[in-house]
Structure formats: C-alpha cells, structure tokens
Amino acid sequence: MPSKSPQLDELRVVLVAARNPLNIGAAARAISNFGFSRLRVVNPYAVAFREAQSAVGAEKLLKNAQEFASVGEAVADCTLVVGTTAIGNRSPRHPVYVLSTAASKIRQRLRSSPVALLFGSEKWGLSNEDLSYCHCLLHIPTSKEHRSMNVAQAVAVCLYEIARRAGPRGSAEKVQRAASDRTERLTATLLEALQESGYINPRSEATAEEKLRRLVRRLNLEAADAEVLLGMVHKILWKLRQGKG
Hints:
By secondary structure, this protein is an alpha/beta fold. It has nine helices and seven strands; from the N terminus they run E-H-E-H-E-H-E-E-H-E-H-E-H-H-H-H.
C-alpha cells in the first residue's frame, strides 16, 4: 500500500447507533490501519466504547472520536455522504454502487472536500431517515446466503478499497460542491415553503421531509448555486407569509 496520502484525512467514518463497544474499537483499529484518522459516532449504544480493548494501536483515535446526536450534525461539513447497505429486501431510493465504483467516486471527491462514509448499527443497519442524508449508497458484494457483514469488517473492507489507490492531491473537481449543512438548510427552507403553501399534508410531513432531503442531494449542487437557490426560496417563503399577514 502507498504511503499515507493527505486526502485520506478528509474522510469521516461515521458509525450510527453502534451497539457493541468491541465493534467500535475494531473499526477504529481498521481506520488507523489504512491511514485514515477521523471517527465519528452517532448515538452509540454503549457509553464506554472509548475503553474498547479491540482498538489495539488506535487508542488515541478512539479517544478523539467525535460524538453527535444526529446524522445531520455528523455529516454537516461533508460535500458527499455515502451510506453502506447490504440491500437485502430493501428497495433502495438512491443510486447504489458496488464498492470498487463507490471507492473511486469517494477518492475523487476527497481530493477537494470532506466525505462521510456511514455505517449503521449491527442489528438494523441504517434507517430510512439516516439514508435520506446520503447522496448515494455503497454495496459490498457478498454471498446471497450471508449478505450482511460485521460492521468492523465492513469498515476495514471499504477503507482498504478506498486507500489502496489513493494518491497525492491533484485532479480535484474544478467546482466546490455544497456541504451537507448548506443542503440541509436548503431542505429545511424548502420544507417551510411547501408547508406554508399547503402542498404538504401534515400527516405525511416526516415522509415528505425524507423525500425532499433525498431530492436536494440528488441535485449535487455547487456551493454557489446552493446559495442562490436558498436565497430564492427565502424570498418565496417571505412572500407566502406576507400574503397571509
């Protein structure tokens, strides 16, 4: 494997609702093994995960893991959010790429901005709400008889594939993509405008929000375009509220 590339520091490995401290520790060890350094956890099931003995050689990385209350907060600074899935009986609502293809897309984006790679809990995986924050999904090809993988193993396999062809910065995208916190701001403002206009049925508001979040992320907006669109929607929302005044 090549020496550590600076772009690897731009990857945020995000474990969502992980239940087993040993898995979190083993994931931290895999992150360190392949030259990455950033671990984020969302609502970990066990508060004592920082003491996991499975993080051999990665104790500092585990100690410095950042905790978040929601996926939205954990991926706020990222311009690309990739969720992992075993697919199973699900009907994905996102583009789904096999690991090799997804790794190539992740490496390309890492050359210019932060990327989040999400892993769900050992029992349930990522929820539909978690997935609504993703731009696309990654699938590790496994046998049909045993599709799911241990979360720490999945982390190791994914990071190996991303790291093995990582190189120095260069050939970055010429445009800056909108970070997740900006697209989430746009999503929230659009949702307010749709609520004010009466387009959204209050009984289906949660589902509508997930659909809208996925739609906004599919647009893959440039940072400048996101600002312009946000300004437009703010103006529309203001007019809607003026009309009711």
